[in-house]
Structures are given as structure tokens and as C-alpha cells.
Amino acid sequence: MSTSKQRLSRLDSPRREVLAPADAELLQALLDELRPGARIAMVGCDSPGLLQALEEAGHPVLSFTLPEGTGPLEVPAEHEQLRSFHAELVLLGDGWLRAADPAMSLARTLQHASAAEIAVSFYNAASGNTLIAALTGDKALPRFTCCEEQVTRWLATAGLRLQRRQVLQQTSASGLLARGTERALHRLFQQLNPGASAHRLLLWSRPARASERVPERALIPGMLSVVMRNHSLKRLDLIDQAIFSLACQDYTQLEIIMVTQSQDPQAVATLTAILERHQPVGDYTFQVLHRPSDTDIRAQLVNTGLKAARGQYVAVLDDDDVVYPQHYKRLIDVLREGEAAWAISKVRRAYFRTAPNGELYCRGKDELPRSGKFELHQLVRENNITCHSWVVDRARLGRFPVGFAEELSLHEDYAFLLRLAALFRPALVEGTATCEYRMRDDGTNSILFGGNATVQAEKHRAWAASTALINALKRNLQVLLTEHDLEMEAEKVRAAVEDAKREPLEAGQRAVDMLNAPRFVLIDRANLAVKEHLPRAHRAVKLALSSLLR
């Protein structure tokens, strides 16, 4: 049974309550948001100091303390108290989590304070500090904790819309472990779940209008969502080929999410028409999302598509590349047969030139070199994985954030792969290449290939700036490695260094061998004979050749 006490006077007790440091942060957050004199109902906030401080700040307070295992407002008299109090804010404290059914308790509270804003204060069960305290058996572990995702679900189920998220306490060094070890664990936890950086949270919500209520959407098992990003309608022929390659996939439980930043008013209609034209071949579903922009928002386009994706599996395909019919089936088969969270296929590079009439034609293809095993040190050294060569199984990632770094206009997919590979090793698809990375000589690729001198100079500047950001990410990335894995990676690095040392020597030896070849020996002897017996002719030929080389 819960008990309540209504306090409307500024001071009910001559005794000065002590405000705990953690509650001081909560108090400041409340005072920053509330209007003067706002009426507050506190549910499960076992802090006399906080209650007194709010009263002293001029806020009428109605407080319900909750014995463990009970829910708020279980006594009819309390229902009337809350209803007649007309609270502008209901603050749910840690004690709310003691209820046998917090979701039911929240619903019951809302019945009697339907117009109030709801704020929930709690310690995050997934914070680095909470996890380290639990692992070390520390007595300072908060007694009542909850995962942010669970609280958010309770709010949504109750018909509330999350308005803002405040971090009252960030994770910090606790001294329970050696500083370096604790720092490494904090980084690891935050890479797996960014929410691990928040130790204590305050979530603000209000009743959602019918139009604002978004039902929780579970991933569709087995579905593959392919996100395509599009910048303009200037290369519709390439877009058409990319979509046709998706329509021809052997894996048929497929949705295409096209996200375009084109400012052309007909962009959505044009892209929809292409998708509809190929739909009878592939029987896929599709969405076209429009985010018009005059700047390059390539990472934002992918993230927009990923948020809309419904599939258990996700992939990214640029609108100028293609995938072969067996591509996604082989990737997903490898995932289903194993335990990995993502898989990579082999890639074929296709080199395109621009004909005099402006049309592109393929002048040749080769396979992107790759060893039979995933080698982390190679990925750390440079990005050797194209963005359309992988598929991710989101059901095996937990709270790991699947998304590209929007602060990067280049290397955005590389940053994601570094974060992913640090915690999850991929499976590899054996056999021949199953997708095609198209490189054009007109400079329209973002890579350092093709284009005139001006285009090349601009690309070099952009890549240099992006590389600096990537290097900063690498310096702070925590990697999961067994000692055996570390030894193997170190051996691969040593071998690569030795190969690099030998290469100049081998190249020099090849040059010596070439100069010692019979045809070069004959030419050298002929040159010496002409110089000795026909010096004038030799000088004339030498001057003529020198003028040609200027």
C-alpha cells in the first residue's frame, strides 16, 4: 500500500533536510524546465531533501512514497488527491521501479493526471559505471536500475511521446579498477551501446496526440532491406541498371529503400517509375524518401534509409554500382549457416571510359584482391571493403548503432566498418565475386580516380580532411581480440612490413636484369661504336633526342 503526503506550504518542517549531490543535479534540471509555481506530483521519489528544495523554490508538491513491491495510487483516496491536485508535472523516481508492474503503475497514474507532463528519473542499468560496479561486486551499485530502452517502451505503451533526454550524470572513473582498464571497458561498452555513457537519466514526455503515436516496429525476420542513396537525376541510366540488378536477385524477400537528395521536383516520381518498371521482375517492395539538399549529405541519406528499413538484414547499394543475381542469397546463406553478425563477398572492379558521344563503356574488369580470411590489420590500414559487398544481421547486434557518421562526407562507410569490425568479426563468402564496383574516368566517383586536375585537387583536399577524422577514430577505438588473434594480426603486420622492405630491392634487381637483357646489351654496344667511330653523327643524334625530351 502506498502512502502520500501533500505539502502546499513553503516549509512544513523546521528540520533542514539534506539534499544528496545526485538529487542536486535533478533539482537543477527541474528548475531549469518548470515555470515558477508549477505544481509537481512526486511518485516514488524517496528524497526528502529534493521535496523540501522544490517547496522552497515556490513549487507546490504532492508526494507519494512507495513501499517495495507496490504500485502508486492503489488506494482510492489517493486517486482523488492526484486528480484534484492538477499537477503540471509528474516526476517518477527510482521508487517507481520497485512496483510489481511499472507499466501498469504508469497507466494508473496517467488516468488521474492525464494533462501532466511526465518526467522519469532513473539510474541506467546499461551504464559503464553500473556494469563495472556489478562486475566488481561494489556496494555502491544503485539499488534500483533500469535500461533506457525499457523505460522508453513503457512510456510509448502508455501513449506518451518522448520529448527530450537529459543526462544527469555521465559515466566517470570509479576507482574500482586500474584507470587504464576501466577506461578501456567504458569505451567498449559505449561502442556496443552509446547509451552506456549515461549513468543517470531524466526522460521528459507528454501525452501524444493520435497523429504522433508510432507503434513499436519489430524487424521482419528474413527480410533484406537494401538502402540506395541518390544525389541527383543526372545518371538515370546507371540508377536503372542498379535497380534492375536488385530485381534479378535470387534472394526474393527484399525491400528497396531509395533516399534521394535531388532538388528536382520530379525526383520522387521519376525514381518511383523506375522502381515500378522493374518490380514485376523482382517482386520487391520499395519506399522512396525525399531529403532535398544542395550539399552532399551522403551519410544522412543512408541513415534515413536505415531508420525506415524493416528487415532483419540490411545492406547499402550506391546507385551507380550493381550486384550479381546470387549476391545477397550467398551472403545471407553464410550468415544463416554460421554465427557471424555480418558477411562480406568478393568484389569485381569495372573500369569505365567516356566515349566521344558521352556514353560510358567498360574497358575492363578485375577482381579486388582479398585473402581467404578476414584480416583486421588490413582494414585498419585502409578501407578495402566496398559498401555494397556486405550484409548485416541486425538481430545479432544488440544495441550496436547501425549507421554512418554524418560528420564525414567521405570515409563515412569506412568509419562504420571500423566500429563494426572492432566488436564483430565477419564471415566471408568464398568463390567468385558477386558484386561490381564501377569506376569511371569522368571524375564522378568520390574515390581518387578519374577527372581533370581541378577535380583531382579538390578530391585530395576532401580526402585529406576526412582521413584526419578517421585517424582520430582509430586512436580511440577499442578492439575485441584474443591473445591468439593479436599474435596472428601482429605476424601479418610483420610479414607486410618485410614485403614492403623487399619490394624496392626486388624492383631494383628487376631493373638490373632488364638492362642486362641481350637487346639492351646490343643497344649499348652500338651506342659506344657510333660514339667512337662517328663522333659527329653521335653528337647530332644526341642533340636531336635532347631537344625532343625538353
Describe the protein's architecture and organization.
With 550 residues, the protein is of the alpha/beta class. It has helices at 21-33, 48-56, 76-85, 102-111, 128-136, 148-157, 179-192, 236-247, 267-282, 298-308, 327-337, 376-381, 412-423, 453-475, 483-515, 518-533, 535-549, and strands at residues 3-7, 40-43, 61-65, 89-92, 117-124, 145-146, 160-170, 198-207, 220-230, 254-260, 285-290, 311-318, 322-323, 342-344, 347-354, 360-367, 390-393, 427-428, 435-440. 42% of the residues lie in helices and 21% in strands. The protein is elongated and about 120 Å long.
Task: Look up the CATH topology of the largest domain.
Answer: Spore Coat Polysaccharide Biosynthesis Protein SpsA, Chain A
Instruction: Extract low-pLDDT stretches.
Output: 1-13
Please provide the count of β strands: 19
Query: What is the number of independent domains?
Result: 3
- How confident is the prediction overall: mean pLDDT? 84
Query: Gap between N and C termini, in Å?
Result: 98 Å
* Percent of sequence in beta strands: 15-25%
The helix fraction, in percent, is 40-55%
Q: Note the overall shape.
A: elongated
The top level CATH class name of the largest domain: Alpha Beta
Radius of gyration, CA atoms, in whole angstroms: 32 Å
Alpha-beta content class = alpha/beta
CATH architecture of the largest domain: Alpha-Beta Complex
CATH homologous superfamily grouping of the largest domain: Spore Coat Polysaccharide Biosynthesis Protein SpsA, Chain A
GO molecular function: transferase activity
InterPro entries: Glyco_trans_2-like (IPR001173), Glycosyltransf_2 (IPR050834), Nucleotide-diphossugar_trans (IPR029044)
Keywords: Transferase
Domain Glycosyltransferase 2-like: 236-362
